[in-house]
# Entry
Amino acid sequence: MHKKIKVMISCMIIVIFILSLGACSQSSSSDKVGKNEIVFWNPFVGPDGKNMQMMVDAYNKTNPKFKVRNISLKEADMYAKIPTVVNSGRNIPDLNIVHAERIKQFVDKDMLIPMDDSLAKYPEIKAENYVKAGWDIGSLDNKRYSVPLDVHSFVMYYNKDLAAKYAPHALDDNIVTFDEIKEAGLKAKKDGIIAAPVTWMKPAFLSVYSQMGGSITSDGTKPTLNTEQAVDTLKLYNGFVKSGITNKDGQDAGQVFKSGKAIFYPEGIWMQNDIKKAKNLNWGMTNFPQLSDDKNKMVNWSSSHQFVLLKNPERNKKKTEGVIKFINWVRDNSLPWAEAGQNPAALATLDNPKYQQMPQSFLIKDTTEQKSLKIFDYKYNGYISEQLDKIGNDTVFGKLDIKKALMDSQKTVEDKIAQDK
Amino acid sequence: MKKVNISTLISFIFLLCMTLIWIFPLAWSLFTSFKDEIDIQTFGFTMLPIHWVIANYQDVLFNNTSAPVAKWFMNSMIISVTQTILVLVVVSMAAYGYTRLRFKGRDWLFSFLLATMMFPAVVNLIPLYKIVDTLGWVNSYWAAIVPGAAAVFNVFLVRQFMIGIPIELDESARIDGANDFQIYTKVTLPLIKPVLTVVALFTFTSSWNDFLWPSIVFNDIDKMPITPGLQLLQGMYVTDIGHAMAAAIIAIVPTFILYLFTQRYFLQSMSLSSGVKG
Amino acid sequence: MIFIGPHLLLFALFFLIPIFFGVYISFTNWDLVNTPEFVGLDNYKDILLNKESTFYTQLHTGLGNTFKFVAFTVPACIVIPLLLAAALHVKPKGMKIFQAIFYLPVLFSISAVMIIWSMMFNVSFGPINHYFTSSPNWLGTQPYAWIALVVVTVWWGIGGNMIIYQAALNGVSKEYYEAASLDGAGRLQKFFHITLPSIKNQLLFTIVITTIAQFNIYGQALMLTKGGPSSSTTVLLMYIQQNAFGSGQSIAGIASAMAVILGLCIMAVSVIQFFLLRERK
# Structure
């Protein structure tokens, strides 16, 4: 017995020794921020993280004066860390990706640096070269605080064979209405096929809420969640659950769709690589379901990843220029980002035939579609999102009273805003 | 005689049923980690894989997924082993000090340490983060290695064991002209090996399995240990069941192997810590 | 001094100072970054008395759920290992293997265990839903979510207590039983009159450490039920973590006050443990 343990321990120590050597050599190359290094934080820890790494590697191969070091953080952690580092003035990244919804709050707290002066050298970074929804977000009080990387939307996938069978004309105008979904669902019910899987309720709610004319804020600071339209939105979905055309509570909607048991499947464009994996599935992509057939009233929930410069007294002019250089390079080389399923914000990608073949490109190609991309840029969107994630599924599946849930959420958001000094 | 047989039989059947309950999740997870993701998505639940594939393990270990599981595994190894070594050194020295050295207020000081064990660690969490941050340790291995070495319980355990060792051995070494440090290395350490083994096993497993603290001090995905890493993997926006299972299995392998080799010590350690002479 | 120095230093820096610091910041409006401002009892007033405040709701929901969890799991984590230990005590065939299997999950990390069990309960892929047709959404409806949490906690954590009980049962002298048999005592009588009193100390010890451990519930609720359905399994440590280290502005002052309150609950139990340890000295 003793012998065994000795052998084990010595083995382990040897292994560790080797590992730590490896780690040391790694850390020495990665922990010290080189003088000519751009520290780049982003929240890409999912499949898209790999594509971002590819882009950064490709950029570094062009031998720029300032190389980019890609650091992916958990989203919640990244947003917790940003105020901490900015306030302490240490370890501030040179470049950061944040969600569009956060920018207002960061500007309010005086944490971002306007880019106008540094962009002067790169005239191609201008409104005409970007998707409008993504570009407009970065402009506050006539100053430019961010440059968009992408616009990602919450749309709907559909099973072509099942749609032809149960909803033959729903897709003719590329708008599927909720009425059409319900009709198809009632037809398909007897065959064990569902039409309205409940997926991520947050974007679904926001999309329908704004189609109904609701808004999450009345004046830009006060939240308005507890409204008639909000109740109606949740009731609509709750009605689908009651009529049995949705997945069962707790059942994985993605699995239902991928195994060919769902006609429609509302999800983000970023999910397509996951859907591609399903063999024998003949799928297409269309707009998020709408209340009306009117193309001009369409709403597709969208968000956008944006490049920003956090306030950092140590970032000198030269480095800032290096950062902008990278942003400009991304403008021309966004194809890998499209391959991650996203819609790059830089219109340069539009001409690429490869991109034109991608299903998500329909959102960018025509201007009516572009207008439907709605970014919910309310300053306290973060708090609203947290609440919607909390109550979304529970209210829809009837485990939580809709009116009460909305009332409590309204209150929680108000309290959190009050705490926000 | 007959009675004994019946009670043995009942016990045996009861244990057998319970064992099946205990084994089932592990067996099914192991099988699931060898399933083809497409099969899982298409057929839902199956007990055995329809096609046996090792792709999940390959993807997870060679970073074909967005979760750098191999890196997490290494991080965990480095952290757990370093912490174990640190704890052994610090704790054995402290225990030696509290049992063999005479200084004023020794026992009073130790009683004070024991008394602080009542303080719940949950109150520490936020200030500890700040201290670690001030030291510049956020996202570095030290954050997970050093604070754990402050625990009093291990000192208590080793001290209890040392009290039972006759002091005469020290005396004779002292007569031969050895100083404290020589006595500690030459006489005491070899004698307290059994209890140190227990402390080492405990420290290693608890460090490997620590969850809340590392999930607070590591937010750089490349620096994480595997335990908080798995939580991140669960939250990633594509549920890849085969991969998640493979990663979970990889995470439990080291402690499993350790247990296979040192089962006796683990069982002893439990009795030791409850104060029963096992 | 050179011998106890290293440990004392670590102890002071990473345990003693944080405790006092932690209590202090519960009286401030700290956000982890700027200088803490002293606000007296405001945080406590807010979370304990101000019915209007979200944090009042958080504390009451969180602490309530933590207490519920303790109440549900502690008895199960005492009785089940005791039964197992008693069954193992008659030394059936394969005893060593049985023992090893029940102890095994203790060594697994919580996140791995939770990944395994969330799949077990998964409606689309899991065996439980497959073998019991028309079974509920375990992790998303009550009371099933609680049952799931208890099952998982028992599966994961009873090994240690089982071993302690085994050692304790081995320590009970055979003579007592023989004497009782002569008096014509039945099985149950023996158990209640001889076995339980003899292992009283170990029982008390395990109850205390199990209770302390379960008060720190975090991982199971976070990864298995995600605090749901509708916050019915969101435990206090989850709120503390969210308020101090969540996204958005850190509310470390309030979080600390919550931690102190949770700490006081645990401390009440720890005091008992301290006296037990003292006795054995």
Summary: Residues 11-31 of chain A have pLDDT under 50 and may be disordered. The CA atoms of residues 122 and 325 of chain A lie 8 Å apart. The longest helix of chain A spans residues 2-30.
